[in-house]
Amino acid sequence: DMKVTQMPRYLIKRMGENVLLECGQDMSHETMYWYRQDPGLGLQLIYISYDVDSNSEGDIPKGYRVSRKKREHFSLILDSAKTNQTSVYFCASSPGPERLFFGHGTKLSVL
Amino acid sequence: QQNVQQSPESLIVPEGARTSLNCTFSDSASQYFWWYRQHSGKAPKALMSIFSNGEKEEGRFTIHLNKASLHFSLHIRDSQPSDSALYLCAVSSVGDNSKLIWGLGTSLVVNP
Fold it and tell me: Would you state the pLDDT for residue A98?
């Protein structure tokens, strides 16, 4: 069953705390993504990963970093979270320059 | 940098209506054109794609692409309440097909 799994589903953090969002996929897709989605701003690409240890900044990488040590796993790290990083974060994977498979999202609130 | 715009921002139609959603882009060199659908509180899910000029039909859904006009569209025949969702168009970035440039979406409500 093709699946992208995100953990956790909901997260509440205080400003300045570190945040780890995790994403796994069982389709052996080379390419994985982290997006955030905010009302009125649409889907914004944070990072794209073309394979293990082959990561590239997206449109809004500031304040974020990523780690991909295994093809099936892609993490998003927020060091010292800020209130403006409150958002819904989506992970996605893709077999190529075509269809993206999205996880169910992580709703992050930074207080 | 590719620029993608969607219209209208929102749309309310009665059940059974034909619905048309529009997407314009700025660079005809893009190769992949997608429509995604996102139900409230859920993840976006790929609906249909088209890679060359023309039309493609899948069930009640039809995509049109006209690269010369920098326009592609999604048409829904016999709209159903279950079609109520946010519809996102996406165009592959020129030079990196792995990156999609997204529109802000059209919010569709189909009233029973």
Answer: 67
